[in-house]
Structures are given as structure tokens and as C-alpha cells.
């Protein structure tokens, strides 16, 4: 979603670094401001691109971009975006022009332009990118084949072709590309001709419908291709040749065909791009991207040497549906500026859930939505929260607020809105919106206006309350009983963070549960619209006094539920007796919240989880419970490693998890989840020995096939805790597995080792910013350099990492910094670490927005960890 130039000796045109300095001139920056974008779109219209590419597989490509457009006036120069290229020719309206170019955009003098139709043609060469943006180049280490793919969101199209790189200047794209003879070339339309030229072929593509630049794409290479024409629209799937055996085309085509049928009917508008291609690509920096008619997916998330688990299939279906929804909501109708990106993503996430709910294959799609909201709750109650709709001053800020609030809170508000106005009214409003703005740009007001008109309600007050105010609220039930009946019942609402005090109105269901034969059974439910700090619910007075109250039954609302004391105690002791999987997931989440909010000690949290996890019958909830075990082990590693309680609780965890694995023999999905957890928590001598025996084939792990992914997981864990002989295993396994994923796994295992010299070497590589290592490797190194349980090694470089943060933030691009700030800011769960982070916050007020947010969040999380640690220490003194 989220270089150097090679010069041609005889053809290179000198580059002028300055730009026009007249009043109102565009700032000399690699980023485009909203103000400058608006000024350009006010003058430019009716854009058409004619693009020609020479693709050889070498590090550099050459291209010609011709832009035809209408210009309203000649009052000022005009800029054309092009990133880090060597311009070989520039003509404006047939006249050769010396480029005025600052490596970010070309400035066309007003005197060379005319009112009406203009043509600008730019010939250039440029290095392929290696950071996942622009036209990315990858060399497969297993067979030497070269693969290319494009990624432009946000505002990276000008890394591949000269353009007006802003979403509200939609255009048509006519493409030709010359590529090696054994390559496929894929774009937004299907090719109309392939001309054999000996060692190469020339591909010709017809003009696309009108698209924003970030929705266009070009992918090329010797991809393996699968085709399916059984549906209404032709479908193709592409992947690297060396990964073809790890792809399940039947699953891809099944979910794609179902999705196209569903969305055609739901939106009431035929799929707009005629064919549906999906491409699995390497080194992708996001999960997937909705390029019109040619969707890209990160291959490491959707390929595996083993058959997909139930969770894998649901993830695949959900991601396919998410990107497919974008073909209408995002590609057909596109936001005017990047502040509308949240609506694109929220809507696609919500539609993926709706689509999954109708497929019949997945039992609990709404459970998946509930689970995805937990990150949004945590983010929304933190110091780094923000409104769903926020200003985006420039393309540098486009991804500053793309997070759990954007995706998950946004989707939750849409769910709430649909509940409020009715499912069919919501669908009709969406249809009308898409029909009115097809092949155009729209705003949030346009969307809310369409729903308001469909519902006959003014929804602007709702939008103001939910979309323009940050923060999540807490909701709890307060009740009293007399003679076994409820005598008083209120819903209490409070702000989760005092800095964001807005209290909202919302429709929820209140569920009352009673123990019947030692099982929690729903005795009553009541829809309630609560508002303000306290809302009486007289409808529940006289009902049987409940053993547990859940004030957001079926997850209608976006609110953090805080169980009352009686309900919390009941949840702890009777969690496994709850029949409804969604409610049971909510109780599992209440345990996690109880730990973080310190209503539950770490030991109680671990023991409660271990008592209930083996009884969990739902596969998704088993994974949630096992995640709690991993959380507990993580805290033990952080502040109790090697202590008596660590050894006792860890041995208990290992025993329960291994027993669960053996009990689920024959159930591949469940057994695999138990095994993954066992590998992650193994620390005792017995568990370490067992991992070695599993790796060597001496121990059967509950019938689970020990595939390459599991082998690397074991090796990583053995190196993490520095088991004797584990370092040699890395080299042995690398010789066995020469794939890209194997190379990255070997790197991860290497930097995980508690070896100071290795960590210093990789820290220097990461901070050098010299492009000596591809970003895919740097990202793995950053994610594994300072794992939990290696506090002393992390502490050795902590001061240096904070001291250099501002300088690196200033020099590195935003793609790099999103990973760097998220992994390399030090926090050690000690008061000294908290103080050090506070000092860094005060000393670095001018960090980029994304990096500063990461610093603030790291400090906040460190404060929370210290509080949990203090509660743990206090509990051990009793």
C-alpha cells in the first residue's frame, strides 16, 4: 500500500538543481504538499499517459513518459513529478527543453506551455528501487531469475514514470513494454499484442479507464502463471517459479470467484476492470496492494511449504476480499487527497468481513473482526491516538496515521453506522455513492452525504462525534440486586484517557448471563443506546440477578468493556463453560486487559490461561489463548528470567502446551498451533533437548509435519537462548534451504544470538544508510536484533540509538523509518529506561511525525511494563 542514477555518457542531459523562485512556487522538497497539489489540480485536467518501458532485468531501466493534458492558464510554471532519474530528453509541445530538475520534479516554464491541450514527453533512465516502492527489482537467489513489480501507494508512481502524482488527477494509461522473451508483463489491462523481437518481446496494452496514479501498475518477470476462466471475469495468478510449488491456485481462484460474485451483487455495479490478476511478489513491504486489475500480495505471508491451515485460509480469503473491495471503493471512486486514505482502508476491511460472513466457509468472521479491534483499542487509549479523519499536509505525512485506528476503528464505526441505519439502507447508500462518483474523486462528506440521503437522516453529527474526535471510551455495568432480582442497572461510560474526554452515544446490546448447571447461559439481552457518563437501563430491572454482564454483546459497539468485579471473577472461573465463541473471545480478552490494567497478577494470568487453554474447542480462540501464554512468557523473560518463579511457571507452560499438542494429534491445525507455541516458550533443559530431537527427527511432534518453516523456528529459538551448537545449525540449514525465505531466516537466527559483536556489526549496517544491504534484510535484522530476554545486550547500545535517532530520522526515507522507529528505539522495562525515553522525547521535538509517535508510544509502553513489573515484584513478596 506503503539510489543512485546511472548516466548515459552521450545522451545524458545536464540537470539543473534549482526550481523557479516566483511567488507561489512549489517548495523544493521530495514531497508534494496538499496546497501545491490543489493548485496543480485547479489548472490541470483531462490527463492521458502514454508510457513506454525498456526492461532488461539489469539494475537500471529506461522509459519515456508522454503526458497529454489540458491546462487552464499560463499564470505560473507547472511541475511534473519524477524521482531520482537521469533525464535523456525533454520536449514540451514538440519543443526540446533543457530540464529544470531537482531529482524530485521537473519545472516546466510557463512560456513553454499553452492554454488548452499540452504534451510533455520525458525520456529518462533510472535505477530500479530495492525498498519495495516504485519499480522494485528482485533477483531470486535460488535460480538467478529477475522479477519486477511496482508499488505506488502513497505517491510513489513518480519513482517509475513522470507524472502528476496525486490522487485527484485521474488519467488513462496506455502502456508498451519491451522485456526478455521468457517474461510475463502484467498491468491494469490485458495486453492486446505481443510482438516477437528475437531475444525480447514487445507488449502492447490498451488504454485503461481513468485511474489515480497510485492505482496503476506494471509487473514483469518470468512469473509462473495459472489461469481460471470459470467465472464471469478471467482470473490469473502469478508467482515466482521457485515458489510455485508453495502456491495453492485452487484456493486463490475459489475465493476470488466468490468475491467477484458477491461484490458485483452487493455494489450493484459490475466489476470495472474486466480481468482480475493477482501477483505474489518478493520483498513486499505491505500485505497487499489494490492496483486496478493487478493486485499484488507479499509472498512470504501467502506461501508455505505445507498445506494451509484454517487460519491461513481465512487470512487469504480476507485479504483477497479486502483488496477486491478496493477495486470499487478506492480505484473506481478514489479519495481526493491522502486524508481520505483511512476511509478506503476501513471500508475495504469491513467489506472483507461482510464478504467472509456470506461465504459459508468460515464459521466466525465477526470473531475475526473483534480480534482485529483489540489493537485499535490499545492505540486509541494511548498518548499517540488521533482522530480517524486527520489533515495530511503533504505526501510525507500520508502514512503517519495509517494504523489500527485507520483500519480497525474505522471499520468498527462503519459497522456501527450500518447497525444504526439498517443493512439495506447502508448498501443502497454505498451503491449510490459509487454510481455518482465512478471514475472520479470524492471526499468523506460525499460518502456521509450519500448515506444521509439513503437513510433520511443527517449523519454529520454522528461523523463529527466519531470521525473527528480521538480516543476510546470505557463501558461498564453497575447494578444492584435484591431478592435475586436486579433492582438497579446503569451503564457507566468514561474516557480511557483523560486527555481525550469525549463521551459518545452508541447502540449496544447488554447481555445478562447466569450459571446453570455450572455453565454460563444467556438469560436476557437488551439493546441500549447509551450516552454521557451514566445511562439507566430500566428494562433490565426485575431480571434475574446475573453472574456475568457483558455490555457489548455481539460486538455492536466500539468501546473498551471493563467487567464489573463479579463478572470478572465469573469469567476467570467459568471461561470454558461459555458456549458462544465470540463471547468467549471477549472473556479471553478481559483476561489480557486485566493483566495490562493490573486487575490480575502475572502469575494469576498465566495460571488462568493454562487452566482454560486445553479446554478451548474453537481453533481461533485456541490461538488467542496460546497468544496469552506467549505474552506471559514474554514478561517472564523481561523481568524474571532465571528466577525460581520463572522456572516454575515456564515448566508449567511447557508441560501444558506439550500435553495439548499430544491431545490434538490428528487435528493438524490445532496441533500446529500448540507446536508453534511450544517452540516459542521452550527454555528448560528438557524442552530444549526435545526441540533438538524434533529437528533431528527423533521425536514425533504430535503428528505435525516438520516443514522448513518449523525447522527455522526451532533453530531461531535455539540461537535466541544460545544453546550449545546452535550457531552451527544456521550454516547447516542454510546449505539445505537456499531459498529467499531461508536466507532471511538464517539472518534472523544470526542476529537473535546473544552475541555482542554480531549485534554491533548489524547495528552499524542498519545505521549506515549506505544501501549496502537490501531493505528486506535490514528489516529482518531490525526485527531480531534486540529480542526479549537480552536486556544487557540491548542496554549496551541503548544510549547510542537514542542519541542518533534524530540524525537517522532526518536522513532516512519514510519506508526505512517506519521499521527503524518501530524496532530500534530502546526500552528495557526499568525506571531508568522510562526516564531515558522521557529525556529523549524532550530533547527531540523536531522528529518526523511517525518517528516521534513511535518514541512516545515506546515510552508509554515502558511505563506500563514497569507498572506490571512492580505489581509482579510486590506479589512475590506476599
From TrEMBL:
CDD domains membership: M1_APN
GO cellular component labels: cytoplasm; extracellular space; membrane
Sequence ranges assigned to domain Aminopeptidase N-like N-terminal in this UniProt record: 48-214
Domain ERAP1-like C-terminal: 548-855
Reaction catalysis annotation: Release of an N-terminal amino acid, Xaa-|-Yaa- from a peptide, amide or arylamide. Xaa is preferably Ala, but may be most amino acids including Pro (slow action). When a terminal hydrophobic residue is followed by a prolyl residue, the two may be released as an intact Xaa-Pro dipeptide
EC numbers for this chain: 3.4.11.2
Annotated Pfam families: ERAP1_C, Peptidase_M1, Peptidase_M1_N
GO terms of biological process kind: peptide catabolic process; proteolysis
Molecular-function annotations in GO: alanyl aminopeptidase activity; metalloaminopeptidase activity; peptide binding; zinc ion binding
Endpoints of the signal sequence: 1-17
Family under the similarity heading: Belongs to the peptidase M1 family.
Matching PANTHER family: PROTEASE M1 ZINC METALLOPROTEASE (PTHR11533), PUROMYCIN-SENSITIVE AMINOPEPTIDASE-RELATED (PTHR11533:SF174)
NCBIfam families xrefs: pepN_strep_liv (TIGR02412)
Name of the protein described by the UniProt record: Aminopeptidase N
Amino acid at each position: 500500500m506503503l539510489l543512485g542514477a546511472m548516466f548515459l555518457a552521450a545522451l545524458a542531459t545536464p540537470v539543473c538543481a534549482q526550481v523557479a523562485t516566483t511567488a507561489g512556487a512549489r517548495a523544493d522538497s521530495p514531497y508534494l504538499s496538499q496546497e501545491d497539489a490543489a493548485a496543480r489540480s485547479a489548472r490541470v485536467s483531462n490527463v492521458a499517459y502514454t508510457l513506454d518501458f525498456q526492461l532488461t532485468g539489469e539494475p537500471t531501466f529506461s522509459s519515456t513518459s508522454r503526458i497529454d493534458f489540458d491546462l487552464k492558464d499560463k499564470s505560473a510554471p507547472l511541475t511534473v513529478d519524477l524521482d531520482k532519474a537521469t533525464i535523456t530528453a525533454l520536449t514540451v509541445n514538440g519543443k526540446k527543453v533543457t530540464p529544470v530538475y531537482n531529482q524530485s520534479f521537473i519545472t516546466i516554464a510557463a512560456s513553454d506551455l499553452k492554454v488548452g491541450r499540452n504534451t510533455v514527453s520525458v525520456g529518462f533512465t533510472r535505477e530500479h528501487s530495492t525498498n519495495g516502492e516504485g519499480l522494485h527489482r528482485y533477483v531470486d537467489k535460488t535460480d538467478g531469475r529477475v522479477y519486477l513489480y511496482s508499488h505506488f501507494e502513497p505517491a510513489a508512481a513518480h519513482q517509475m514514470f513522470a507524472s502528476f502524482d496525486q490522487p485527484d488527477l485521474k488519467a488513462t494509461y496506455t502502456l508498451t513494454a519491451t522485456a526478455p522473451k521468457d517474461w510475463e508483463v502484467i498491468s491494469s489491462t490485458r495486453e492486446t499484442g505481443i510482438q516477437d523481437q528475437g531475444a525480447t518481446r514487445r507488449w502492447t496494452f490498451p488504454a485503461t479507464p481513468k485511474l489515480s496514479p497510485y492505482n496503476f501498475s506494471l509487473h514483469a518477470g518470468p512469473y509462473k502463471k495459472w489461469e481460471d476462466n470459470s467465472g464471469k471475469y478471467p482470473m490469473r495468478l502469478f508467482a515466482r517459479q521457485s515458489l510455485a510449488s508453495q502456491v495453492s491456485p485452487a484456493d486463490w481462484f475459489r475465493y476470488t470467484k466468490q468475491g467477484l460474485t458477491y461484490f458485483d451483487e452487493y455494489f450493484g455495479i459490475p466489476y470495472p476492470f474486466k480481468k482480475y490478476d493477482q501477483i505474489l511478489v518478493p520483498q513486499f513491504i505491505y500485505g497487499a496492494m489494490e492496483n486496478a486489475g493487478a493486485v499484488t500480495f507479499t509472498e512470504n505471508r501467502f506461501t508455505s511449504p505445507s498445506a494451509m491451515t484454517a487460519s491461513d485460509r481465512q487470512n487469504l480469503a480476507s485479504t483477497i476480499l479486502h483488496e477486491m473491495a478496493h477495486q470499487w471503493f478506492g480505484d473506481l471512486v478514489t479519495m481526493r487527497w491522502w486524508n481520505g486514505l483511512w476511509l478506503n482502508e476501513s471500508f475495504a476491511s469491513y467489506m472483507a468481513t461482510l464478504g467472509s460472513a456470506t461465504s459459508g466457509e468460515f464459521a466466525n468472521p465477526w470473531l475475526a473482526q473483534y480480534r482485529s479491534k483489540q489493537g485499535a483499542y490499545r492505540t486509541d487509549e494511548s498518548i499517540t491516538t488521533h482522530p480517524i479523519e486527520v489533515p495530511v499536509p503533504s505526501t510525507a505525512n500520508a502514512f503517519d496515521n495509517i494504523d489500527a485506528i485507520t483500519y480497525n476503528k474505522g471499520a468498527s464505526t462503519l459497522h456501527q453506522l450500518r447497525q444504526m441505519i439498517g443493512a439495506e439502507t447502508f448498501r443502497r447508500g454505498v451503491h449510490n455513492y459509487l454510481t455518482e462518483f465512478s471514475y472520479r474523486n470524492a471526499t468523506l462528506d460525499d460518502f456521509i452525504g450519500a448515506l444521509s440521503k439513503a437513510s433520511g437522516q443527517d449523519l454529520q453529527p454522528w461523523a463529527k462525534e466519531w470521525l473527528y474526535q480521538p480516543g476510546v471510551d470505557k463501558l461498564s455495568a453497575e447494578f444492584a440486586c435484591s431478592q435475586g432480582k436486579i433492582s438497579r442497572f446503569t451503564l457507566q461510560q468514561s474516557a480511557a484517557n483523560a486527555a481525550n474526554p469525549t463521551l459518545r452515544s452508541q447502540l449496544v446490546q447488554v447481555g445478562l448471563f447466569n450459571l446453570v448447571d455450572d455453565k454460563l447461559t444467556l438469560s436476557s439481552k437488551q439493546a441500549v443506546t447509551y450516552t454521557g457518563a451514566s445511562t439507566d437501563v430500566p428494562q433490565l430491572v426485575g431480571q434475574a440477578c446475573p453472574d456475568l454482564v457483558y455490555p457489548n454483546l455481539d460486538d455492536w459497539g466500539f468501546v473498551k468493556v471493563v467487567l464489573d468485579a463479579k463478572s470478572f471473577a465469573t469469567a476467570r472461573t467459568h471461561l470454558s463453560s461459555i458456549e458462544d465463541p465470540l463471547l468467549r473471545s471477549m472473556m479471553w480478552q478481559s483476561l489480557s486487559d486485566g493483566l495490562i490494567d493490573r486487575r490480575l497478577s502475572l502469575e494469576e494470568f498465566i495460571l488462568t490461561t493454562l487452566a482454560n487453554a486445553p479446554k478451548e474447542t474453537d481453533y481461533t480462540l485456541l490461538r488467542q489463548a496460546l497468544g496469552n501464554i506467549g505474552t506471559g512468557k514474554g514478561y517472564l523473560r523481561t523481568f524474571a528470567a532465571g528466577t525460581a518463579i520463572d522456572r516454575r511457571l515456564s515448566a508449567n507452560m511447557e508441560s501444558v502446551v506439550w500435553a495439548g499438542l499430544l491431545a490434538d494429534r490428528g487435528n493438524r491445525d490445532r496441533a500446529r498451533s500448540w507446536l508453534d507455541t511450544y517452540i516459542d516458550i521452550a527454555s528448560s533443559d528438557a524442552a530444549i533437548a526435545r526441540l533438538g530431537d524434533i529437528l533431528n527427527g527423533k521425536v514425533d511432534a504430535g503428528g505435525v509435519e516438520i516443514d522448513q518453516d518449523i525447522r527455522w523456528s526451532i533453530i531461531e529459538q535455539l540461537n535466541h537462548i544460545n544453546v550449545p551448537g546452535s550457531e552451527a545449525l544456521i550454516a547447516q540449514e542454510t546449505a539445505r534451504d537456499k531459498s529467499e525465505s531461508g536466507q532471511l531466516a538464517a539472518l534472523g537466527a544470526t542476529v537473535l544470538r546473544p552475541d555482542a559483536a554480531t549485534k554491533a556489526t548489524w547495528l552499524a549496517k542498519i545505521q549506515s544508510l549506505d544501501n549496502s544491504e537490501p531493505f528486506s534484510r535490514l528489516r529482518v535484522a531490525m526485527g531480531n536484533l534486540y529480542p526479549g530476554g537480552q536486556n544487557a545486550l540491548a542496554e549496551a547500545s541503548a544510549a547510542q540509538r537514542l542519541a542518533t535517532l534524530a540524525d537517522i530520522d532526518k536522513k532516512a526515507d519514510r519506508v526505512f523509518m517506519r521499521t527503524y522507529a518501530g524496532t530500534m528505539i530502546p526500552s528495557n522495562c526499568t525506571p531508568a529506561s522510562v526516564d531515558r525515553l522521557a529525556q529523549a522525547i524532550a530533547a527531540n521535538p523536531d522528529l518526523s511525525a511517525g518517528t516521534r509517535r513511535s518514541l512516545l508510544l515506546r515510552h508509554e509502553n515502558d511505563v506500563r511494563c514497569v507498572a506490571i513489573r512492580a505489581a509482579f515484584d510486590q506479589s512475590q513478596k506476599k
